[in-house]
Model the fold of this input.
Amino acid sequence: MTAGRSRAARALAVTALASLNLTVLAGPSPAAAAARDTPDVLMTVVNVTPTVPRATYKARPLDVQLRLVNTTGEPIDGVQVVANRGDPLPTQNALDASLADHAASDQGLPIEPDRIVHWRKKKQHGVRIVKSTTSAVDLPADGSPVAVTFSTTLSKRDQYAGICLCTSSGIYPLHFRVQATADGTTQTLGGTTTYLPSFYPKRMQPVGVSWVWPLIDRPHRLAQDNVFTDDDLTDSVALGGRLSRALTVVEDVGDEVPITLVIDPELLDELEVMKTGRYVVENGTGKPLPGRGADAASAWLDRLATVLSDDSDVTVQLTPYADPDFETLTQRGLSWTTDLPAAMAVRVQAALAGRAPQTDLAWPASSRASADTLDRLRAAGTTGILLASSAVTPRVDSSGVLASVAHVRTAHGSMTIGLTTHAITQDAGEAVGASGASVLPELVAEIAIRAAEKPLVPHTVIIRAPREIDPSPTDAAAAIRATSTNPITHAVSLQTALYGADTTPMTGRLVRITDQRPSLPPRTTRVARAITHNLPALTSLLGADAAAKPLLAGLPLAVQRLESSAWQVYPEIGRNLAAQLSTVGHTLLTGVHFVKPRSGSYTYTLASDNSPLPVTVQNDLPYTVQIQVRVSTVNGLTGFTQRDPGKSYSIDPNSKVPLKIAAEVRGPGRIALQAQVRTPDGSPLGDAVSLNVHSTALGVIGIVITVAAGAVLAIALLIRLYRRLRRRRRARLKAAARAEAAVVP
Done:
C-alpha cells in the first residue's frame, strides 16, 4: 500500500511539474492534451443485478460488476472504488445530458459497500485467477482487466447506508470512481456512471414494451429457384450460426414475451428449396456443386415451425420477398411487388407450418421514408411502418413525451408509424450482443424515463433489434426479459403497441429527406431497370418456347433480388449479381442476329422491282425464337419498300435460316438500307446493320422511254423495209420495161 501511494504521489508531482513547465514554455502540446483526455484507469460497468429493483422498504442486495484497466503502463497499487448516488433524473433531456459523456460526478449521497470483491488473471506458471476481498485493488502494468464486484444494498428508507431510493421516482444515476491516495492527497484516476430506475408501482402506469425481432438474410439466388450463388446460408442456419442463434432467442423467450418476427419470405423459400437437397451452388467454374445444406435447413425450419405452433404470442410479419429497399427504389423510379410468385407462396406457407402471416407492416432498412414512398406502400395495402423518431415531426406527443406512434396522411389513406429512438435502437443492438448486460441499465433507463416524465399516462416503446442481428442467445434473452418483464414495464405485442386501446397516436408529418444515407449500389438498380424495361421484348421473343418459361418467370424475381436492401450492407455481392444478370440480359438480346455474307459486306443486287431481298438470320440461343425483320432506307429516302414488315419468322435453337424479304424497288441504282432484327412486338434486338443494294430494275419512265424507243425503231425498220421493197419493185419494173423494149423492135 505504501509503495503504491509513493508511486502515485511521485506520479502526481511529476505530472504537475511537467504540466507547469509545458504551460510556461509552449502551452499544452497535442500529445499532452490527448494524454490528459485518456484516464489512467478505464472503468466500465459490466452488469447491474438487479437491473430494475423493486422499490421496497426492506433492504435488498445490489451487485454492480465493474471492469478496471490500467492505461499508464506502470503498476498502480491500492486504489479504492468509491460510489455515490445522484439525484433522480426527471426528464429525457436530463437523461440525454448524462448519457452524453458518462462522467462520474462526486456529488450526491455516498454509497457504502457491503463488500468489494475483485479478480484478475495472473500469468505465473500458466494463467490462474486471483481473487481478493480487500477494499484495495492492485492494477497491473500490462493493462489486463481487473473485475470488481461492488456489493451494496438498496431500499426506500434513508438508512445512511447502501443506496437510498427515497427521494422520488425516477432514474437514479450511480457514479463510480477509482481513487488513489498518496501523502494525504486523493486523485481520481477514472470513473463511469450507470443508472438505476426506481418507481412506486401504485403511482405509475407501466410502460408497454414491444420487441421486433428480424429473421432476415441477404438473397442467395438470382433467377433460378434451385441455383444458389453461394452456400453461406447453410452455415448461418446450422447450430452456432447467426440465424440459428437468432432463432434460439425466440425459442427461449417466445413463451413469455409477445415478440414480433419480421421474416423475409425469400429466406423461407431458400430454406425450403435447400431442405429438399435438390439445389446446386455456382462456384465460378461452370460446374455447379451440389448444395450441402439440406439437413441444416430442415432442422432450422422444424425449429421455427415448433415455435409458431407452441407460442401463440409470437407473431409473423413478412416483408416483400428479398426485402427491397423502398426508399432508394422510389428515388430512382423503380418498383417492387408484394405478391409472392405461386411456387414461392406454396413453399413459404409450408415453412410457416400453417400460420397465417401478416403483410401489412413495412420496415425500411434506412428507417426513414419520403411521402412518395409512403404513398406507394399505402397503395399496396401497407397500413403500418417502422421509422426512426427523427423521421417525423413533431417528435413528442400531446403529453410532451417522445412519441412512439404517429399517424401520417398519404394520398391513399392514413399510415400508422411505429417510432423508435436512436438511443434505444443503438442500446438494444448492443444489449443483444455478447456484452449486453453492460448496456442494459442505459436501455432500461431510456425506456423508463417516459414514466418519470408522465407517470400516470400510458406509454409504449417499440424496440427493434438490428436487421442483421448477430446475437448472443443468453444475453439477448436476458435483455428482452429485463426490458419487458420488470416492475416498471410489461410486454405488449406490436399490434397492441400500434393499434391498442391505450395507444394515442400523434398526428404528424414526415421530415423531408435531405441528407445522403447509404443506398443501393447504382449498378444494381441500373441493371434492374434495364431488365424490367426489356422484359416485354424477351417475352415476345421467347414466349412461344415452353423451355424458356422458367427463365422468363425467373427474371422478375432476379430484378427484385437486385433491389434488396441487403446490398447496402453487402454492396460488392450486389454488384456481382448485377453483373451476372446484365450478362444474361445482353446474351438474350443479342443472341439473334444477321449472318454476314461470305463477301464480307451486306451487298445485294436486285434485278427486278419485286425481287426478294435475301438475308440470313442466326439464333445462338438454346430456345426457339419468334422474330421479325424490318428493312428501311437510310434517312427515310424513297426507292425501297418492304411489302410485309409485320411477318414473323420462327427460328429453331442454335440454327440459322435464310429469309427472303418481300420488297419493292423503284428505279435502278444504289440504295442504302438498314436492317433490324426485332421481336414480334417490335422491340429491336441488337444493332441495325447497313445494306448496300444495287438495283438493275427499270422504273416507269425507263419503261416508257424503252417502249417509245422500240416503237421508233420498229417504225424506222418498217419505213426502211418499205423503201427497200419500193426500190426492188421499181427495179423490177425498169427491168421489165427494158426487156419489153428489147422484144419490140
About this structure: The chain has a mean pLDDT of 86. The chain is about 35% helix and 30% strand. The longest strand covers residues 185-198. Residues 700-743 form the longest helix (44 residues).
